[in-house]
Amino acid sequence: MDNPADNRNPEREQFIKQFDAGQYLKQLRGDRSLAAVCKQIGVTPAHLSEIERGRMPSDHLISTLARVYEVDEDGLFRRWGKIPILTKDEILARKSLQRLLSEMSHNSQLTEAEKDELYDNMYELYRSFIQKKNQEENFK
């Protein structure tokens, strides 16, 4: 039996993401005119219209749109299939994180499920660390 993942078309999937994200922006704009929103974000109505029809915006514009529409910036980046700016900055600033991600992505002994499990464990470790730190600060 064929694995559907083997028949994936990454370009098509990205196009669909971009189209869906553009439709989402159009929804967020609601009754506001293109001109009114464009004035807030500093682009032409033609440019915003293209983005609403699926053109990929710049990272800076995604951040601006999130602020103007008052939505989660990371979520908006994910809708476009992009990595949020703060996440990119953190990866670039942390050599140990780069090394970890690189080694895990190149390790052929790990399945995707095992990688996900490791990432979930790291996230839980982080949450536990923060919770402990907050408790310690509350006792001061």
Structure report:
The protein has 140 residues and is mainly alpha-helical. It folds into 2 domains: 4-87, Orthogonal Bundle (434 Repressor (Amino-terminal Domain)); 94-138. 73% of the residues lie in helices and 0% in strands. The chain is built from 8 helices and no strands. The chain has helices at 10-29, 34-41, 45-52, 59-69, 73-79, 85-93, 95-106, 112-138. The longest helix has 27 residues, at 112-138. The chain is extended, with a radius of gyration of 20 Å. The mean pLDDT is 93.
Quick synopsis:
With 140 residues, the protein is mainly alpha-helical. It is 73% helix and 0% strand.
Radius of gyration over C-alpha positions, nearest whole angstrom:
20 Å
Beta fraction of the residues? Answer: under 5%
List the helices and strands in order: HHHHHHHH
Q: What is the overall shape?
A: extended
Stretches where pLDDT is under 50 for at least 5 consecutive residues are none
Helix percentage: over 70%
What name goes with the CATH superfamily of the largest domain? Answer: lambda repressor-like DNA-binding domains
Separation, N- and C-terminal Cα atoms: 61 Å
CATH architecture of the largest domain: Orthogonal Bundle
Task: Report the structural category.
Answer: mainly alpha
Q: What is CATH's topology name of the largest domain?
A: 434 Repressor (Amino-terminal Domain)
Supply the CATH class of the largest domain.
Mainly Alpha
